[in-house]
Amino acid sequence: MNLCQGRIGKQEGASLAGIALVSSAVFVLDIGETYRYGNGTYIAFPGAIFLAFMLFLLLAEAMRISGKKDLIELVDYAVGKFAGNLFVAILCALLLVNAYCLLSRFSTMVHALVYMKTTPFPVLLWIVPVVVYIAFRGFECVARMAKCFGLLLGVALLLELLIPMRGYEAYRLFPLPTEHFDAIAADAFSGMFATGPALLAILCMARGLQGVRSAKSAGTIGALISIALVALTQLAIGLTYTSTELKSIFVPLYRLNLKLVQESYFFRLDKLALFAWLIGAIIASAYYLYGGASLFCRRWSRYDIRPAVIALGVILLCVLAAERAWQYNMVQTAFSFVQRYGSWMLIVPFSAIAVIALIKTHFMKRRHMNETV
Amino acid sequence: MKRYRLLALLVITATLLPLCGGCLGPTSLDEYGYVLTIGVDQGKQKKFNISFLLQKEGDSQEAQTGAGSYIIAAEGDNLFDALLIAHVGVPYELNFTRTNFIAFSDQVASSSLMNEFLSISFNAVKIRQSAKLVIIQGSCVEYMEGLASTDIPNVAKRQYSHFQTYEQEGVIPLTNFTTYQEAIRTGRFDIAIPVGRLDRSIPTEDGSEEAKQQGEEQQTNEKDTTDGVKRIGGLRSYLHGSALFDGDRLAGLLDDEDTEILLLALGEFENGSIRISDEEGTVTFLLKANGEPKVQMNLGDTPHAAMQLTLYAEIELDTAGNAEERWDSTLKAALEEYIENELARVFAACKALNSDAMRFGRYACMQFSSDAAWQDYVWKQKYKQMTAEFSVAIHLDYRAISAHVE
Q1: Are the C-beta atoms of residues B154 and B247 closer than 8 Å to each other?
Q2: B240 and B293 in a common domain
């Protein structure tokens, strides 16, 4: 089986996890609905990454203790191959849903904010093939691209937050949603559908990351950096726009400069920034696409990963085109379903797998010790 | 084989690069007419008479010899209607990416038409949402004509001078479309927008006999002044004072001195001069703000605000020559009391217009624990009964005095 996986190091892994987590949290989770009770997104979104990180640590620890080399092995070890199919299918689907969500959001952004005179389909044709090509070249290619752009994108994001600082006003964060901590927690939990797959995919490809220990370090660095970046980004958005405005603003991060009254052409970097984020989204989507194809191949196909990447890429393109052409409601209903139940589908089975694996290992070690005695 | 593959890749890249660089569909700068200001007056045939102040780029004959700015106006029920008509008469495409100002006549701003005009999708014509708003006393077309000058062909440069007026003199506020939207959508405060006026005593620059005659005639008219003062030279159009809004409607105007006081309360004041006269002489101070004012709000059925303001003063003009000695004994208290009284007066003026232009709603909303509770409070209803007290502390900048003594 040719998985085109290769070998990558901690820096590549951390950049990959960081880019995917920041892109998903800032662009997929940031929708009007999250501001229904006020603005608590600067807690909820980093919280979603933190919860995913906890699940990641639990699974990584279970893999280390049970001596399994990647997540698929752990799943098979805990629940057997037959039931394992279901869990792998869930993760595979969630990875592809994340790729879809990111591409859908970015193609809409590029179409609505830059190329508004064209139809959405040419924009899709311009973005999706790039994603498919990077995924087609394999995991190593995706990860090395992430390393090349990781630091650059991080600095660009921080600059984007620093430049409009004069427009920030603390009163816009008010009223603080102090009566709605339950809603913030619920948002953090439901947001896991977008943050969890990025970290779990690292564990699925732990062999390519030189083992579980290295994958754990890469995931930890990526998660911690992205928690800080996402919290800062959402705080900057909250200091620029009130929750009432945010309910109806599309991609508020793109509009941070607009509150400045003494703006000059120097501040008109939003379109450049958009293309920087697009690079991040392309890398993240390629990572999700490769992850989904890799799981599919390892479980249900013994052949080359590349046809699977192309096939899944074409399906992705068709869904994105259908969403824009005539099936908007159907695709949105499916998205709402994943948004509502995705985190449950992720946290319940995979926490259970970690716990079962740990208990099983404990008893097996005990039995082994008794047999030795 | 590997070498051929590399060669093929290079050829493909070289073929595609010109496409990316726009070589196959080049567009030169003079194919665009850059709209720097949009003016919105009430129309006769249609709802609006929309005028566009253009800066033409490139080496065109007009740019070399003329003012370099043009006005195109057309009527329409919205911006897109007017654009359709305006496009017919120009050999280039109107481009809105550099639009810095949107001006509304006071007639349009007093009605719901301003909000109706601004409800268009700015993105559709690529107008930046940070475009500044201006209210024109009279007609926007006339105001734009008053901006045309052969001495200063670059309109954008003239527009940037407004920022200097804002920063160095503090006689106009600056409000952009995004802040207008925030005020309308959230109802937390009302906005103050700079007012554009026309000094008809300044002759037009088209040089025609008729215009000269018109200018001479108008110079004799006492009412045609720059905010009540005679001026010679410069542009006919100028920005002075502020227009106060109650929600999305123009409620009233403040003159330049009241605008300075308003900016002090807003925490947007940078510099400005103030004059105190008594039996010993006249002292003119340059006031500098020191951060935002501190406001304590007590909410209830009648909200009450206590605002504390700290300022620094420099002596600019001292006719008696003893201002420094008199500072602690008389001048400091007199100046503080004067500004406190002025703040109270301007607050009362704003309240009379039902305009929370001092933005006390910003502080009020901080005392609520949920968005729903804030919405239920209905701030603008409570604002009608609001009371406020102001305390001002002014410190004399001695370092500036020692530098001032030559």
Answers
A1: no
A2: no
In total, how many domains does chain B have?
Answer: 2
Most confident of the ranges A221-230, B8-17, B160-169 = A221-230
Residue B171 maps to a domain = yes
In a domain, A373, yes or no: no
CATH code of A361's domain: 1.20.1740.10
Question: Which pLDDT tens digit goes with each residue over A344-360?
Answer: 999 999 999 999 999 99
Boundaries of domain holding A352 = 10-365
Q: How many CB pairs under 8 A join A and B?
A: 76
Q: What is the pLDDT of residues B185-221, one digit of tens each?
A: 988 999 999 998 887 777 666 555 445 555 555 444 5
Could you report the predicted ipTM of this complex, rounded to two decimals? Answer: 0.84
* Residue B224: inside a domain: no
Distance from CA of A176 to the nearest CA of B (A): 6
Interface probe, candidates A130, A171, A265, chain B, greatest B C-beta count within 10 A: A171
A263, A266, A271: best to mutate for the B interface, most B CBs within 10 A: A263
Domain that holds residue B133: 30-199+236-254
Higher pLDDT, A312 or B122: A312
User: Could you tell me which residue, A32 or A262, shows the higher pLDDT?
Assistant: A32
My answer on whether B60 and B123 are in the same domain is yes
Does residue B80 form part of some domain?
yes
Q: Do B371 and A243 lie within an 8 Å CB cutoff? A: yes
- What does the pLDDT average to over A200-211? 92
Q: Both B249 and B298 in a single domain?
A: no
Q: Where are the alpha helices (H) located in B131-286, listed in sequence order?
A: 140-145, 155-164, 177-186, 209-219, 256-266
Give chain B's contact residues with A (Cβ, < 8 Å).
123-124, 128-130, 132, 163, 166-167, 174-176, 178-179, 181-182, 185-186, 188, 362-363, 365-366, 368-371, 373-374
- Contact at CB, A116 and B128, closer than 8 angstroms: no
Confidence of residue A163 (pLDDT cuts 50, 70, 90): confident
